[in-house]
Design brief:
The complex is a heterodimer.
Chain A (H helix, E strand, L loop, with lengths): L4 H28 L7 H6 L5 H10 L6 H13 L13 H36 L4 H15 L2 H15 L15 H35 L2 H8 L4 H22 L2 H14 L5 H10 L3 H29 L1 H4 L1
Helix pairs in contact in A: 1-13, 5-6, 5-8, 5-11, 5-13, 6-8, 7-8, 7-11, 8-10, 8-11, 9-10, 10-13, 11-12, 12-13
Chain B lengths: L2 H11 L4 H11 L1 H18 L1 H4 L31 H37 L1 H15 L3 H12 L3 H27 L3 H8 L4 H37 L11 H8 L8 H28 L5
Helix pairs in contact in B: 2-12, 3-5, 3-12, 5-6, 5-8, 5-10, 5-12, 6-8, 7-8, 8-10, 9-10, 10-11, 10-12, 11-12
The chains are: A mainly alpha, B mainly alpha.
Chain lengths: ~325, ~290
């Protein structure tokens, strides 16, 4: 692929924009602690904590220092990979994040596979059969998918497949190293629940991109050449329509993480989402901050990759 | 459609006030009107809750614990004998309030920020947009959960958390709209006449960009209702014994095999209200967008 100056300028500008964004993200997340009502040390240690513990926390988190000094000390730690320590579990937040990430990663992977398997073909069919009953049906199904709260969908699936039919386990997680079959069985419902809303978004993106492409001159030319409709749709239209779908899909990462919080809670999956919810219940604020920070970093990185991929794939933007 | 019909339709559009035209187009979209009708029904239920609820939503009845739907209790009872229908009816208030207050908060902060940012431009615009970028970098629900966790668990804080988390979208949308109209002739003319900046922003720009903001507000209300239910489901919103659809689902999830009806009705209420708002929002967007005809 030819490296063009316009592309290099775009990438440099895009990278430069990340620096202030990261700075403000860090300020926001550091600022969360300032929202705690009353003495943060008391909030961190709990109501019945020993005064010596409170004094230790004041010293450890430099709570007597001015705010800017505390921010600099905190961000220095973050830059060196120190996200603080969980007050309840007494372990570094970084270790907890690294431990839980593969579980959520696997759930997210299966959810994306389900979303793509349902969303993209549904979008193609709806666009090809534009303004027919099939199109209206698919559009309505997408709206249903967007409107159903995923924790309720999870509960309904548990009711049907676990309580009534006894086909799938209602909750829990088995590592693939332990038993691949059990792993897939435990993840089937959560992955569907998580993938459902994203499938709806994917369907809308694919449909709208396909409708644009199907009206383009080169598709009309392909049809005029006498190519079969299947070949026109799959070889000519879809390849171009998928460019925005793939990049917009990357932006669904945020929805995937938000959804994972609820899904993991409903199905008791010990992942990244359950980590933040348990931390919220336990008032383990360092963990909440650490998880939010990691999520934001991953989101910014994925956004950057999506933008770069878009420029690399789309020849018009390279010029 | 024949050319004649098209020309009649175009003539009907000409000389008609934009809002009247949008209303006419909206009325033609039956699905959107059905959505609006259901939303109005929910609003009426919330307002008339003391009159239409068959029982006190927090009154326990140990003689009627986890009773399935019957003539006495249409939606059944919960784990401490409270009437599920009464709680669903009163729960409408928390959900609608969350939708209204959160979105109003997001609008009150986001729209002026976007208006000033887009109009003034330069360094201020760059600075404000980087802050907005930072907020958008944290997924909406995760930001709302973090804010609600740090502010403390109750409905008011949940609404603040949702409103603050939704604010960046309104700021970004408003700024984009301002940029698209700020060099239009009518704005230049207002400036040439010596109107102060505040007047130009409020009297000339804002009325011309209000349509997409209105659409976004409708769709954001749906998202806020789901977010409130989510926060209440996680124990960060409405606190017991006050009824909320999210907290009802949280309790119901512990009694799925013994009392499945406890999980059906509150979830169905969230789904129906959110679906109706989305249907209305989609219809409103189509009606206000001249390209969609």
């Amino acid at each position: 692929m030819v490296w063009e100056p316009a592309m290099a300028t775009f990438l440099i500008r895009r990278l430069a924009l990340i620096v202030p964004t990261l700075f403000f993200v860090s300020v926001l997340i550091f600022g969360l602690q300032q929202l705690l009502p009353g003495d943060p040390a008391l909030a961190l240690a709990g109501e019945d904590a020993d005064p010596s513990v409170i004094a230790y926390l004041r010293q450890k988190y430099h709570l007597d220092d001015p705010l800017p000094t505390r921010y600099v000390l905190w961000i220095k730690g973050v830059v060196h990979g120190d996200l603080g320590e969980s007050i309840r579990i007494k372990r570094p937040v970084r270790d907890l994040v690294v431990e839980k990430l593969p579980v959520t990663g696997e759930l997210a992977f299966f959810a994306l596979v389900i979303a793509l398997t349902i969303g993209v073909p549904a979008g193609i069919i709806a666009a090809v059969r534009h303004n027919t009953a099939v199109d209206y049906g698919a559009t309505m199904a997408a709206l249903w998918g967007l409107s159903i709260p995923n924790f309720w969908l999870g509960i309904l699936l548990i009711l049907l497949f676990s309580v009534k039919l006894d086909w799938l386990p209602a909750s829990g997680f088995v590592s693939p190293a332990e038993s691949l079959r059990q792993n897939l069985l435990t993840l089937a419902m959560p992955a569907f629940v998580l993938g459902n809303a994203i499938a709806a978004v994917m369907m809308r993106h694919t449909r709208s991109a396909m409708l644009q492409v199907l009206g383009a001159d080169y598709v009309r030319t392909a049809r005029a050449k006498g190519l079969s409709e299947k070949r026109v749709v799959l070889r000519h239209a879809l390849r171009n329509a998928l460019v925005p779908v793939v990049t917009l899909g990357a932006l669904e990462f945020g929805a995937l993480l938000s959804g994972a919080v609820l899904t993991e809670q409903v199905f008791s999956i010990p992942g990244f989402g359950k980590l933040i919810v348990d931390a919220v219940f336990n008032r383990d604020y360092a963990v909440v901050q650490g998880v939010v920070l990691c999520t934001a970093m991953a989101y910014i990185l994925l956004n950057l990759l999506a933008d770069v991929a878009y420029v690399l794939i789309n020849p018009r933007l390279r010029a | 459609m024949t050319a004649e019909v098209v020309s009649v339709a175009v003539e009907a559009d000409e000389g008609e006030r934009p809002w009247r035209r949008a209303l006419r187009r909206l009325v033609r979209r039956r699905v959107a009107i059905v959505g609006l009708g259901i939303v109005i029904l929910f609003i009426l239920v919330a307002l008339l809750a003391p009159l239409v609820a068959p029982y006190d939503p927090i009154a326990t009845n140990w003689a009627a614990v986890r009773k399935p739907p019957s003539v006495l209790h249409w939606f059944g009872t919960d784990e401490i004998g409270r009437d599920v229908l009464a709680r669903v009816i009163w729960g409408t208030r928390a959900s609608l309030l969350a939708g209204l207050v959160s979105v109003s908060l997001a609008l009150t902060i986001g729209v002026p920020l976007g208006l000033v940012s887009g109009y003034v431009g330069g360094f201020l615009d760059g600075l404000l947009m980087r802050v907005i970028d930072a907020m958008l970098a944290i997924p909406f629900l995760i930001l709302a959960i973090a804010l609600a966790a740090f502010l403390g668990p109750n409905l008011t804080n949940a609404m603040i958390a949702i409103g603050v988390s939704q604010m960046p979208v309104f700021a970004r949308l408003t700024r984009g709209q301002v940029l698209s109209v700020k060099h239009e002739d009518y704005i230049e003319a207002a400036r040439a006449l010596g109107n102060p900046h505040r007047r130009i922003m409020l009297r000339h720009i804002l009325p011309n960009i209000v349509a997409p903001i209105l659409v976004q507000a409708t769709l954001a209300s749906a998202a806020a209702i789901i977010a409130e239910a989510t926060l209440s489901f996680l124990g960060l919103g409405q606190q017991p014994p006050d009824p909320s659809w999210g907290s009802m689902l949280n309790v119901a999830s512990h009694f799925l095999s013994q009392a499945p009806w406890m999980a059906i009705w509150p979830g169905l209420a969230i789904f129906l209200l959110v679906l109706s708002l989305n249907l209305f929002g989609d219809g409103l967007r189509d009606a206000l967008d001249p390209r969609r005809g």
